Amino acid sequence: MANVMQVELGDRSYPIYIGAGNLDKSELLTRHIKSKQVVVVTNETVAPLYLERVSRHLQDYQVETIVLSDGEQFKTLETLNIIFDALLAKKFSRNATLIALGGGVVGDLSGFAAACYQRGIPFIQIPTTLLSQVDSSVGGKTGVNHALGKNMLGAFYQPQSVIIDVDVLDTLDDRQLAAGVAEVIKYGLIRDASFFLWIESNIEKIMARDKMALTYIIEQSCQSKAEIVASDERESGIRAILNLGHTFGHAIEAGMGYGEYLHGEAVAIGTCQAAELSCELGWLSHTDVTRIKTLFQNAALPIKAPSSLSAETFLELMAVDKKNVDGDIRLILLKEIGEATLPVAVEQKQLLKVLNS
Question: Which 8-state DSSP code applies to residue 62?
């Protein structure tokens, strides 16, 4: 039986289905398809594993399948155009439904395409990585990268539903699993100290892919994100706390070349840097910082920025961030484990101290 939670957004509310075997439950998918035209967007890694299982539910529909290259480096306007070309060539109408079957890159590209095509068509998220299940598939942030900044082109556009099958994590490689755990840890840090403690106590089970532990962290993470998004859909206030570590992390991704570091790996490093800065400002203790770094290490994640990225380059890249105002770099920091700040302006000398450490 799938656990169902709701993202409450008035007439744009939608369910998140979480459970084992959800990929094989036809009704979870078909109840959210409004017309006979369906396009499934996936990638070359996921297609051989799960495309046939999803396609089985769509035999009564006019289906177009788009298989993209796999990787963050392909989250571009050029790739977006591949989706538009297919939709236009097949004369898909504004009632067509787009299904995103894949990780965060597929979900972000598909959501942006759905938001733009004929000014908006329905889409469904079927996330296949832990990171996309706990974060990017929920909340309606869509977009592509630009050479000068990550996710700088995009739209807020909510899906019709999110279908999460815990079993697909069986085929996820260890590095991708760890990248997803980085975003799970974030939820504990920003608003739920007891969840952070639970992750600390159960990290070995999580990394060993214990099904009950994985289901629990997905449910807790989705619940947290659903509550935050419901109260601040367009990130004018509290939703910004979801970006803990992301300004540093996005700079690493852009500076090292998209795809060199997985998003979760860059966020892990960025969160450690945010923790150090929070300590520098007198909020976190040194013990807190050590706890945070140790948990990321126990999740097989990096905690130190690449030495080839200079502090000056870091600052330059961090200046291209959606939270910045009037040239000030604004960051989400931690008052304590379990409580994040809203974006705060940080002096350059304080930033440099952390970036040079």
Answer: E
